[in-house]
Amino acid sequence: FALSNFALPTSTMRLCSLWSGGPLGYLEKLSLASAVSVGHAVTLFSYDPDSLINVPAGVDVGDANDVMSDPRRTRLLKDGYFALASDFFRYEILAKRLGCWIDLDLIFLRQLPPCEYLFGWESEYSINGAVLALPNGALLDTLRKIPEKNWLPPYFGPRRTFQYLLNRAFGPVYLEDLPW
Q1: pLDDT, tens digit, 9 for 90 and up, residues 23-76
Q2: Taking residues 78-97, what's their average pLDDT?
Q3: Degrees (nearest 5) of the Cα angle 16, 18, 23?
Q4: Helix (H) or strand (E) holding 145
Q5: pLDDT per residue over 131-150, tens digit each?
Q6: Angle 32-37-40 (CA atoms, 0-180°, nearest 5)?
Q7: Single pTM value for the model
Q8: Which of 165, 143, 142 is nearest to 152 (CA)?
Q9: Sheet strands side by side (includes 15-18)
């Protein structure tokens, strides 16, 4: 996992993440504490912020409803689509300019460079949303519109497109109904 940045640092970047569920585990606490220890301001959002326990010192707790309250998207959490819900939550964090998104399985050895574009590389050919900063613009707008019904992924080949169109003939197709 390596980082690439495309702008010169200007100041310390705020980091943001989302927690849904019970108490933070060891890895999540370590991730947050390591981010604070290298000098980042960190906000951990929750849809039930008063019930969060084990939050490391120096981490701000925020109400996730202030970031994303659209029932169509928050339902994804209730229905067990945690990865998908966190994707849309991170896009809202970015659109509202609240900071850089981080997953809670990262250990920080040094500060992330503050810049408009920040991606975590998963491999030589693939970026990973575990660390993500994007400016407002066409890319972020496109990502935020994905949950709309009847969204046909542009990367579907002929077979998946045919199956999608067949399913759509019988009613709306929602994102959570598409293959992973």
Answers
A1: 899 999 999 999 999 999 999 999 999 989 889 999 999 999 999 988 878 888
A2: 89
A3: 125
A4: helix 138-145
A5: 999 999 998 998 888 777 77
A6: 75
A7: 0.82
A8: 165
A9: 2-5, 118-123, 126-133, 100-102, 15-18, 42-46, 59-63
The first and second tokens of residue 171, run together, are: 């009613």
Query: What is the token pair recorded at 9?
Result: 């640092």
Closest C-alpha among 94, 89, 86 to residue 134: 94
- CA 37 → CA 30, 98, 162, distances in Å? 10, 20, 51
* H or E element that contains 166: helix 158-168
The tokens for 88 are 């849309």
